Amino acid sequence: MTFHPSMPYDTGLHKSERRLPEQGEPFAFTAENRARLEEIAGRYPPERRRSALLPALYLVQRQQGYISGHAMAHVAEAIGVTPAEVEDVVSYYAMFYSQPVGKYVLQVCRTLSCALNGAERVTEALSAKLGIKPGETDATGLFTLMEVECLGACDRAPVVMVNDHWHECLQPGDAAKLVDDLRAKGPDAVTGCHLCMEKK
Ligand code: FES
Which pLDDT band, with edges at 50, 70 and 90, does 57 fall under? Predict the structure, then answer.
């Protein structure tokens, strides 16, 4: 869409001018994370400080578990961008959460390769095991289930991300064991990349 010169243009509606609702807990980086952010930002020329935005958001998410409106405003000030620009990035990438999530986030890919290889049945199996639907967190607060678009491992479909780790060729029958392993072993159950080859 292009604006005709005579069209009224409300600059207050421009994305970079939006004001975010102040939702979530007040947020400030810990001293350690603030120092880490400054170390990362220092790798870029001062005029490219905004290049540290993605690492800054990872630091927020590791500190708080998700990225609240307060945290977006805090990052915007730390990096030198508008809160709306931070929100645009948070809402674009599936690995950033703008709402509280469980300790383990199970993201089932629903794009073509995974869909053709049974991702829907994997989601159903995880749903049944956890007693929740995609988009929900279970009663213990431990698990959040999501359906997402392509996770970039299409040749090893169906793929499920557990936090930062891929589980590839995950079949519906593996779902209950995955949840049980996470409950029993904690993060140790999800270290490394679980390749299809390991299952053959
Ligand atoms: S289609 Fe599922 S990882 Fe690409």
Answer: very high
